[in-house]
């Protein structure tokens, strides 16, 4: 066996230190990182711009109830499988976009459940490292064969033109938070922002609002819950990468988030359990 001298791997160094500590180099590095992140955000904005916001066709009371029930099922199943919030949000985006192109009759409640299962399954395949078998997506009220779920998945894929790698608000949270000048820890703002996003998905149709709009509103809500139109507009200017942000739309989402947090015991998963309890009480009266 040929002996390979270790010394040959060592190159001759000049007299400069191994780890540069020059502040100018640090500034250059920070500038490059900021530039790259801004470019990444611009890519996200361009990707979300491909899919225009659509006025929701979910207007009737029964359809709103069916969607609300689907939201709760998806969030509950997310916990069972330890899916990320990103996966649940993506599933609901598929759900809302599908219903802007196709309709389901009011007496076919099973079809909404099947749609929920297929949307969550597709989202898990896009986001999760470990994906459950289709046979594991069982519900208390319906049992679907794997072939049936697969056919619904294919229908969703064709209806959405196979555009499944969609942008969600969570992709913007860290970037928007970093732009804020505040003493609040970034992790705390991101965590609260996530809660505000989850707190309104039961009340808004995701196709009517850009992900960047929802993200900006959530970060502002986590930062300050007493803003109005005048303070909101200057704050939006610091999110310079998102030129598409419209103050009126951001303020509308922001207002819904603040109002929702006041009437619920909490945001995020706690909100859904609270809403579910309210519905049960209404049914029993």
UniProtKB/TrEMBL annotation:
CDD domains: CYCLIN_AtCycD-like_rpt1, CYCLIN_AtCycD-like_rpt2
Domain of life: Eukaryota
Keywords from the named record: Cell cycle, Cell division, Cyclin
Domain Cyclin-like: start-end pairs: 72-158
Database matches in PROSITE patterns: CYCLINS
Domain Cyclin C-terminal residue range list: 167-282
InterPro entries from the UniProt entry: Cyclin, Cyclin-like_dom, Cyclin-like_sf, Cyclin_C-dom, Cyclin_N, Cyclins_cyclin-box
GO biological process, one term: cell division
Pfam hit, one: Cyclin_C
Cited Gene3D superfamilies: Cyclin-like
Record family assignment: Belongs to the cyclin family. Cyclin D subfamily.
UniProt-recorded name of the protein: Uncharacterized protein
UniProt source species: Asparagus officinalis
């Amino acid at each position: 066996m040929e002996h390979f001298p270790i010394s040959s791997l060592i190159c001759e160094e000049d007299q400069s230190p191994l780890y540069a500590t020059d502040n100018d180099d640090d500034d250059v590095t920070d500038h490059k990182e900021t530039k790259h992140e801004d470019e990444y955000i611009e890519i996200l904005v361009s990707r979300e711009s491909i899919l225009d916001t659509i006025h929701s066709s979910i207007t009737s009371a029964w359809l709103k109830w069916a969607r609300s029930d689907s939201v709760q099922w998806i969030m509950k199943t997310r916990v069972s499988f330890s899916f990320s919030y990103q996966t649940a949000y993506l599933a609901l985006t598929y759900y809302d976009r599908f219903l802007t192109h196709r309709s389901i009759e009011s007496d076919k409640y099973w079809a909404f459940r099947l749609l929920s299962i297929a949307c969550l399954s597709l989202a898990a395949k896009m986001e999760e490292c470990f994906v459950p078998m289709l046979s594991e997506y069982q519900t208390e009220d319906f049992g679907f064969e794997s072939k049936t779920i697969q056919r619904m998945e294919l229908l969703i894929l064709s209806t959405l033109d196979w555009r499944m790698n969609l942008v969600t608000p969570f992709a913007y949270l860290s970037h928007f938070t970093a732009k804020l000048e505040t003493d609040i820890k970034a992790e705390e703002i991101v965590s609260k922002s996530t809660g505000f996003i989850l707190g309104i998905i039961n009340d808004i149709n995701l196709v009517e609002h850009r992900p960047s709009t929802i993200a900006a509103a959530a970060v502002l809500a986590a930062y300050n819950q007493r803003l109005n139109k005048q303070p909101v507009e200057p704050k939006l200017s610091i999110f310079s990468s998102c030129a598409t942000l419209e103050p009126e739309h951001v303020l509308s989402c922001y207002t819904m988030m603040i109002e929702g947090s006041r009437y619920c015991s909490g945001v995020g998963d706690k909100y859904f359990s609270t809403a579910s309890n309210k519905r049960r009480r209404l049914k029993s009266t």
